[in-house]
Amino acid sequence: MDPEDSLCSSEVWTKSSSFPNIDAQQHEQKWVDTSILDYAMDQPFQEYEEQTELKASLTCNSNQQIGILNKDSDQMNAAILGSKVQDWDPRAMLSNLSFLEQKVHQLQELVHLIIGRRSQVLGRPDELVVQQQQLITADLTSIIVQLISTAGSLLPSVKHNFSAAVPLVGQLEPPLDRVLFASESGTNNGVVQSQHGDGTKLPEVPTRIDESSKYGKEQNMSVEEHELKDEEDADESENLPPGSYEILQLEKEEILAPHTHFCAICGKGFKRDANLRMHMRGHGDEYKTAAALAKPHKEPSYETMLIKRYSCPFTGCKRNKDHKKFQPLKTILCVKNHYKRTHCDKSFTCSKCNSKKFSVIADLKTHEKHCGKDKWLCSCGTTFSRKDKLFGHIALFQGHTPAIPLEESKGTAMSCDRGERYETANKLGSINFSFGSIASGGSSVETIAAADAKGGVDDPLTYYSPLNFDPCNFGGYHEFPRPPFENAENAFPFLIPTSSNYNQKSGAESSCNNLE
Amino acid sequence: MKRQRFTEPTNPFDLVSDEIIFTILDLLSSNPIDLKSFSLACKSFYSVEAKHRKLLKPLRSEHLPTVLKRYTQLAHLDFSLSPRVTDASLAIISKACNSKLRSIDLSRSKFFSATGLLSLATNCTNLVEIDLSNATELRDAAAVALAKAKNLEKLWLGRCKLITDMGIGCIAVGCTKLRFISLKWCMSIGDLGVGLIAVKCEQIRSLDLSYMQITEKCLPSILKLKHLEDLVLEGCFGIDDDCLAVIRHGCKSLRKLDVSSCPNISPTGLSSLTRATSCIQQLTLAHGSPVTLALANSLKSLTMLQSVKLDGCVTTYDGLKAIGSCCVSLSELSLRKCVGVTDEGLSSIVKKHKDLKKLDITCCRMITDVSVSHMTNSCGGLTSLKMESCSLVSREGFVLIGRRCHLLEELDLTDNEIDNEGLRSLSRCSKLSILKLGICLNLNDEGLAHIGTSCSKLMELDLYRCVGVTDSGLLAIIHGCPDLEMINIAYCRDVTDVSFSSLRKCSRLKTIEARGCPLITSSGLAAAVVGCKLLRRLDLKKCCNVDDAGMISLAHFSQNLRQINLSYSSVTDVGLLSLASLGCLQHLTVLHTNRLTPSGVAAALLANSSLTKVKLHALFQALLPERLLKRLEVRGCTFEWREKIFQAELDPKCWKLQLEDVMQIVL
Fold this sequence. Notes:
The complex is a heterodimer of chains A (516) and B (667).
Chain A: H1 8-18, H2 24-47, H3 52-59, H4 69-86, H5 90-120, H6 127-154, H7 156-165, H8 174-188, H9 204-221, H10 225-237, E1 246-249, H11 252-256, E2 261-262, E3 269-270, H12 273-280, H13 290-293, H14 300-305, E4 308-311, H15 332-343, E5 348-349, E6 357-358, H16 361-370, E7 376-377, E8 383-384, H17 387-396, H18 410-441, H19 445-455, H20 460-464, H21 486-491, H22 499-515
Parallel strand pairs in A: 1-4
Antiparallel strand pairs in A: 2-3, 5-6, 7-8
Chain B: H1 2-7, H2 18-28, H3 32-41, H4 43-52, E1 55-56, H5 64-70, E2 76-78, H6 87-97, E3 103-105, H7 114-123, E4 129-131, H8 140-146, E5 154-156, H9 165-174, E6 180-182, H10 191-200, E7 206-208, H11 219-223, E8 230-232, H12 241-245, E9 256-258, H13 267-276, E10 282-284, H14 293-298, E11 307-309, H15 317-326, E12 332-334, H16 343-352, E13 358-360, H17 369-378, E14 384-386, H18 395-404, E15 410-412, H19 420-426, E16 434-436, H20 445-454, E17 460-462, H21 471-480, E18 486-488, H22 497-500, E19 511-513, H23 522-529, E20 537-539, H24 548-557, E21 563-565, H25 573-578, E22 587-590, H26 598-607, E23 613-617, H27 618-623, H28 626-635, E24 638-642, H29 652-666
Parallel strand pairs in B: 1-2, 2-3, 3-4, 4-5, 5-6, 6-7, 7-8, 8-9, 9-10, 10-11, 11-12, 12-13, 13-14, 14-15, 15-16, 16-17, 17-18, 18-19, 19-20, 20-21, 21-22, 22-23, 23-24
């Protein structure tokens, strides 16, 4: 995958990143603007609340540069709506084309702006500057997304499928979705990089969606940390011949994302798709239908077609696909845990012994269950965390007896003590966890620094990508009912594994077949 | 030379070897007074008796050092009469007796701890039995100490509520020779501890797990015990059908099983249990699920069953009929307080089980002469029959019992219609040793005379509220039954000193209940106790003519008295104080005696050092000095303060009518 092949957006982005000196003042001003514009943007959003595809397209508009665009996009959306009703309409096509034109203009403006800044900026790269750049990049991405989505709707056959997918409300527009993948791959230099923006390569896209949905499902199912560990361990012994499976590599920030399912309306993040579906009910009656609430089903044909294995993004890691003795990871959860355990700080400390540290919260909880002074002791000196284990041990060995602590009263004190401690541990765990979610969100400056240390500054992709999450972190944003993660969505298309995804995917697939 | 020959054999016993004297002593040992007389005969007898004595029941532990110096061969120590046994006493014992001590009973004692038990366990290496029931203060440390007694075979830990799984685990590992263990009411011990006992102590024969919080988890390992014969699971609420369904391993050695008061075991659970334990001979299912066909069918697999106890169960005709047909050769059946036992049900059982030896149909109020007739016809070999309150059985029914069941040894006819005719026919039961005729209002002296003349082996006679009984009837009994050990003439109001004083002829009397006999006076009591040296319990409540004079002679003659009730009597401070010379008086009840003063009571309490339980009127609690009460409590004495209102005595017939009224209301 040659980076030169990537979209203009990523080109621009890399350029900007190579000249990271942006005036801080300008930057601040820009933030103020953003919030205002955001507010303005909010209104049309409410207007069209019932029309989900509209919303979806709106969510893509994230920054002030495309503020002007809002009206156009409204028009565009109306056009899309119209097209849906009448199947194929030359007028809609025309409006789409004009919309595209506008977009291209915008893009030009944006690039101009960047060029202008480049000349202005002096001094060392500041974090804020980086963030600003990031925002521009995001804008770019969003514009490109819209460009492609509109372009996609120009194709009659695709549009047909698209409108077929519409009844499954509440999710992103199918073409848009597809584009999201493209842009994602563009920004992140992902595995599926080359497919984007190219109609002929369409089949790849659904595959990607499938994978992402699989991920979502998996997360729903396997919650137990042990299972995950086992999976990862079992993975070691697995001997798939190289080439018999498809290798996917997620980026660091995808791995560390706290939530994997996002509401397309308000942007709230969820760990499970089911929770998202429950949440969606609050956004209107159309989400309360059985079809909207149903568990998205898998497409069997894709499941059987390809075996997917995952690579760790950390270069030099044995789990990285470039490693000589590469051992792939089986599932995304394996990737998550592997990455956190191996390449992340151990930020969770055991509250009992204060020495053991963990990077995966579940590991900490498992440890805390067994950590503590009140152990069941055998005369041979072996300690047990559970009484029945001690008694099993004593039953097994000749001459071993339970050892009783000298203080007689300990028996009763111990039990209640334990209960308390367990509670506190739980509380602490949850506190840790909330902190953890912020940290792994990668939005705070500290985390960036940490990422610096870990990921290495020389790699621009790893350096900047955490900022895809940014919007939620910067003042005032989250007070508005617009999705704070819209850009993140761009970066993580698989984070929206919804029923429409599946339907759209299959639609896209069939459309491809039609084309062929 | 000649002179020497004359002087040498002054004592013929000098020529007899110690072994022979020991054999003689063995034959004497049934009566402690005989032994005492023997040892007091001469110095050599004294030392021989001291050397021979194996069992000692000390009254108080203060004299232990001297006592243990005298008796060097002691193997069994029974402290059930001494409430205070401290760690120091146990240390003395462990030093003096060391490896000779085989058993020790501390079930009634307090004030010892793990330290004392540790010295006992380490020094007395041959200790085989230890009873620690009621040691509610003992903790796991005591169990650790106990685990040092490697040769322990029998262990009672009833009500040791603070001993946990950890403690019992130590015992299980340490005392691997255990054969008998009782863990009744050990609330802190659960499945793990019991399971470990079952794993480590393979020799266990008897296991009492009553009222413990155990579940199915320990049952498999218990049933794997190869020698287990007796298993008690009474009141184990945690054991239910699901638990029992899991049992796969059968225990072929089990002979006795008690699953009474286990409300969660239904006939299905029971059938899975009985499948696993097919060799059971005695089965107790008291207060359990209703006796239905299903339950009876679950007993079918028990081919060796001999005894079934269904006390307090709801029974159905089908169930009883099925029991009658399925069990092979029952010799013992208890339907005590069962609801729904009818003539048909009982008849179907007794017709089949002709070998029945013991039958308990107490409070089966629906049965009539029909079942009595069937029962006496087919079960001629009955030795024990308890049929209290079978009020529908007529006088003729009891005649049948006497006529057909000659082998009866124990007969409980309390609260029945039996009359003199019945008693006359019962006189054929020459082996009768226990006869209870309480609240039988239809009989009088004439009937008792028949008993007196023929039932010479009678040991226990209960004439509670038999208003027809007077002096002549009682005299006939006393003359005819010299072996009497217990007599109850409570509320036989016509009994006077004439007959009461002749109780002295029954030298084995241990219990006299003469409550509510106002005609008995101190002189009668004094005359009676002269012969009753073994008397242990005496109830003189409401004998208002008994005063200090009686007490003085009582204190002189009945040195073994343990329990006395003097409520409503005319005893004063003097009488109470004179009781202090009774060395082993433990329980004292003095209520409603208006002639007692606080100082007198205080003095009596102080003087009577063996008291363990005293019932007094609540007024005294305030009147007695607190320090005195504290001191007595340290000694091991507990107080019960009662605030009963003085009750006038009712006419017996009126009393019974009243009782029936109450029962009508209850029913």
